Each structure stands twice: as structure tokens, then as C-alpha cells.
């Protein structure tokens, strides 16, 4: 389930590093989205990283659809912590 939508969510798998490069084409393959006209898959990948890891910064590379994500630490949040964060975000957005 996405943050605000009813979509299927894949389990998060950490790369165990402080820096990660995310490619839009790989994001579409990972998310199983056929339409490649928007940044939908890349947005889902980044949303998942914000929920499960402590993101310090996201830097576009200047190349189409490639971003570098820098993390503050190696900690990965549990499913319970992520569920609480989602609940808080929905509450702040006025959806609950």
C-alpha cells in the first residue's frame, strides 16, 4: 500500500550502504509499472526509502531519471515504525 493510495507494496530491501543510486528504468522493473511517461516508479522508490531509512539528501545527477540518495545511518525501520509514520503523515494531511 502506498502512502496515500491503495497500491501493492513490495518489501523494502536495504543495500546496507550510506549512498544508493536509483535508476528510473530499474525502478519501473522493480515496481512492475508498464507506463514510463512519468516519474511514478521513481517516486514510489523514493517514498519507500524515506519511510524505511533516515534519508539525508536526494541529489539528481543531471542524467534523466537517475538520483543519488544519501542516508544518515544504516538503520532500517521496522514495519511497525513505518505503519506509525504512515498514520502520522495521513493524520497531518487531514486524511484521517
Any key phrases for this structure?
96 residues; alpha+beta; three-stranded antiparallel beta sheet; globular; coiled coil
How many domains? The number is: 1
- Mean pLDDT, to the nearest integer, reads 83
Distance between the termini: 16 Å
Structural class: alpha+beta
Describe this structure in words.
The chain has one domain (19-93). Helix 1 (24-31) packs across helix 2. A hairpin with a 5-residue loop joins strand 2 (55-60) and strand 3 (66-71). It has helices at 24-31, 40-52, 79-92, and strands spanning 19-23, 55-60, 66-71. 36% of the residues lie in helices and 18% in strands. The protein is of the alpha+beta class and 96 residues long. It is built from 3 helices and 3 strands; from the N terminus they run βααββα. Strands 1-3-2 form a 3-stranded antiparallel sheet.
Task: Give a brief outline of the structure.
By secondary structure, the protein is an alpha+beta fold.
Mind sketching the topology for me?
Blueprint: E1 19-23, H1 24-31, H2 40-52, E2 55-60, E3 66-71, H3 79-92
Antiparallel strand pairs: 1-3, 2-3
Amino acid at each position: 500500500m502506498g502512502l496515500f493510495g491503495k497500491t501493492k507494496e513490495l518489501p523494502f530491501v536495504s543495500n546496507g550502504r550510506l549512498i544508493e543510486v536509483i535508476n528510473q528504468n530499474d525502478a519501473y522493473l522493480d515496481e512492475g509499472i508498464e507506463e514510463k511517461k512519468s516519474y511514478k516508479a521513481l517516486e514510489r522508490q523514493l517514498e519507500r526509502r524515506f519511510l524505511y531509512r533516515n534519508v539525508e539528501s536526494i541529489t539528481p545527477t543531471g542524467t534523466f531519471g537517475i538520483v543519488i540518495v544519501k542516508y544518515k545511518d544504516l538503520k532500517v525501520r521496522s514495519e511497525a515504525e513505518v505503519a506509525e509514520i504512515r498514520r502520522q503523515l495521513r493524520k497531518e494531511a487531514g486524511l484521517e
